[in-house]
Design a protein that fits this description.
alpha+beta; two-stranded antiparallel ribbon; 1 helix; DUF2188 domain-containing protein; DUF2188
Amino acid sequence: MAKTKYEVVPHDGGWAYKSGGVFSEAFPSHDEALEAARIAAQEHQSAGKDEEIEYQDGSGNWRQEHADGEDRPDTEVVDRSNEPTGHETP
């Protein structure tokens, strides 16, 4: 099963969460970004309905496939704001 990470990071003068290299909107506080990441992770795990999807692949070819609404990834929220940066003074 796929795993999707939501990482809380400083961003654009505030805080955001990042998933798959894409940043969320910036939030004024760390706590707001953390709560938004938790909500996004929870919603990403919610089952939906089956659908037929159509998309263009990296080669420009159009593909059609069936998307199972129960096939949801595991999600994880990572908050590294309290981890040492290596720049602490003794």
